[in-house]
């Protein structure tokens, strides 16, 4: 269980980024940039909930919070122990953050056999046009104000500058803020993130248990065996990425958007190929393999190098 | 017969993490040349299999070879380590994220339990242990 003294790490998802204790990991994630949900769990229970959606209507934050708390108190029915609520808490103190947001802070605590409590806030951001609801959960007797305050104060809901941070399960990358997450896949030992930027497609793959994937081969051999079919020009020494020697290449890759399952035999429904730039490396410290593929109208190795340089792999 | 039989409630998460995996004592366990664990599972002696064995060849035991991670995990299932400790050890040994290690370990332990290769010793409310 976290007591507030452990290390902190960054989580970034759909331009929402925040610091959280290192032992909290994503337990649930859904939605897209405009509407979504993210939950972090520790080994025992859900610890942090984040909801966001496009701001619609003229409801003020305190009205939305009032509705949420009314639902919360009404859930247990008449026999349920009462929920103690405090409103108008100044949980976020950073003036620069408060400048473009209307924030409403709250705290609730349940009683009974297994009491729970939460510090949370809701705000409407004028810049990204989203309403964000965040709450840090804990057990009834737990001292969690410091932790909740640090987390909520670090929470940012839009990209600052030209780049946005994406950070999940120990993988962190900074991408241009116009990159939109198209697909994601979180499997045990395999994380895939696919981004769209105009017509360009950027794929990031991280595989854990690298030594089992390599099966005694060197990383360049594995990379050539796996991606050799689509790479024409190899770059054996593509520089250091995260302190590890990387390998890359350019070639022609099939654009998955043009792969049809029905009537694929028709000439105009055949998959189209696009210029592909690829980069991969083996993080020996974390025993992981990283591969970045970029499909665009032309080979853009410079862009790929720039992106690969932002990856924090261990 | 399982018909109309009420399913036992699932083990609460906290208790699951505190439980201790114990190997089935009826199994034979050897290590092959690759360092992998080879389990010998004796044939069940039901009337149906006994009848079949008179007509066909039915081996007296079936073998299961665990892979590298499985063998490592099997070594930890000694009745002393809790599931939480097993997860932490797997995480450290194979450099996995906590969630990755947890999901894969719990799935694997579930499979081993369903096949009857291990059991989970759970401390009951009075502090006693039941397997």
Describe this structure in words.
In chain A, 16% of the residues lie in helices and 45% in strands. Chain A has helices at residues 61-75, 95-98, 145-154, 210-214, 219-227, 301-308; strands spanning 8-13, 16-21, 25-31, 36-41, 46-54, 83-87, 101-110, 116-125, 130-139, 163-168, 171-176, 180-187, 190-197, 200-207, 231-235, 240-241, 244-254, 273-283, 288-295. The model of chain A has no long low-confidence stretch (mean pLDDT 89). Chain B has helices at residues 13-18, 47-55, 68-76, 83-94, 98-114, and strands at residues 20-23, 28-31, 37-42, 61-65, 118-123, 129-130. The longest helix of chain B has 17 residues, at 98-114.
Outline of the structure:
Chain A is of the alpha+beta class and 314 residues long.
- Count the strands of chain B? 6
Low-confidence region ranges of chain A: none
End-to-end CA span of chain B: 22 Å
Distance between the termini of chain A: 23 Å
Describe the structure using short key phrases.
heterodimer; A: 314 residues; alpha+beta; 8-stranded antiparallel β-sheet; 7-stranded antiparallel β-sheet; 6 helices; elongated; B: 131 residues; 3-stranded antiparallel β-sheet; 5 helices
Topology:
The complex is a heterodimer of chains A (314) and B (131).
Chain A: E1 8-13, E2 16-21, E3 25-31, E4 36-41, E5 46-54, H1 61-75, E6 83-87, H2 95-98, E7 101-110, E8 116-125, E9 130-139, H3 145-154, E10 163-168, E11 171-176, E12 180-187, E13 190-197, E14 200-207, H4 210-214, H5 219-227, E15 231-235, E16 240-241, E17 244-254, E18 273-283, E19 288-295, H6 301-308
Chain B: H1 13-18, E1 20-23, E2 28-31, E3 37-42, H2 47-55, E4 61-65, H3 68-76, H4 83-94, H5 98-114, E5 118-123, E6 129-130
Antiparallel strand pairs in B: 1-5, 2-3, 3-4, 5-6
Helix pairs in contact in B: 4-5
């Amino acid at each position: 269980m976290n007591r507030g003294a452990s290390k902190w790490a960054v989580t970034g998802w759909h331009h929402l980024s925040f610091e959280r204790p290192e032992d909290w990991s994503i337990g649930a994630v859904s939605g897209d940039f405009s509407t979504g949900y993210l939950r972090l769990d520790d080994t025992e229970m859900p610890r942090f909930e984040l909801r966001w959606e496009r701001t619609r209507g003229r409801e003020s934050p305190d009205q939305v919070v009032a509705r949420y708390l009314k639902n919360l108190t009404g859930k247990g029915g008449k026999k349920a122990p009462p929920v103690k609520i405090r409103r108008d808490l100044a949980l976020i103190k950073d003036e620069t953050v408060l400048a473009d947001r209307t924030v409403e802070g709250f705290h609730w605590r349940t009683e009974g056999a297994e009491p729970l409590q939460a510090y949370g806030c809701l705000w409407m951001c004028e810049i990204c046009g989203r309403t964000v609801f965040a709450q840090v959960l804990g057990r009834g007797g737990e001292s969690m104000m410091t932790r909740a305050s640090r987390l909520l104060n670090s929470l940012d809901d839009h990209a600052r500058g030209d780049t946005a941070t994406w950070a999940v399960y120990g993988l962190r990358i900074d991408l241009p803020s116009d990159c939109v997450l198209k697909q994601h896949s979180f499997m045990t030992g395999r994380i895939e993130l696919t981004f769209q930027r105009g017509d360009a497609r950027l794929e990031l793959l991280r595989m854990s248990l690298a030594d089992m994937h390599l099966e005694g081969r060197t990383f360049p051999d594995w990379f050539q065996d796996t991606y050799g079919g689509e790479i024409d020009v190899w770059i054996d020494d593509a520089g250091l990425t995260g302190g590890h020697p990387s390998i890359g290449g350019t070639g022609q890759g099939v654009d998955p958007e043009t792969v049809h399952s029905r009537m694929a035999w028709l000439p105009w429904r055949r998959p189209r190929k696009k210029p592909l730039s690829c980069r991969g490396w083996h993080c020996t410290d974390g025993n992981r393999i990283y591969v970045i593929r970029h499909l665009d109208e032309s080979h853009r190795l410079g862009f790929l190098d720039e992106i690969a340089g932002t990856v924090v792999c261990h | 017969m399982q018909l109309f039989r009420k399913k036992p409630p699932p083990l609460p998460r906290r208790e699951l993490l505190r439980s201790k995996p114990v190997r089935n004592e009826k199994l034979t366990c050897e290590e092959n040349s690759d360092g992998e664990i080879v389990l010998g599972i004796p044939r069940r002696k039901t009337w149906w299999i006994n009848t079949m064995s008179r007509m066909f060849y039915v081996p007296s035991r079936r073998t299961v070879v665990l892979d590298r991670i499985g063998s490592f995990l099997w070594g930890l299932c000694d009745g002393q380590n809790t599931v939480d400790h097993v997860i932490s050890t797997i995480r450290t040994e194979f450099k996995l994220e906590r969630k990755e290690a947890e999901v894969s370990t719990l799935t694997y332990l579930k499979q081993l339990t369903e096949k009857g290769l291990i059991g989970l010793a759970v401390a009951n409310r009075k502090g006693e242990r039941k397997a």
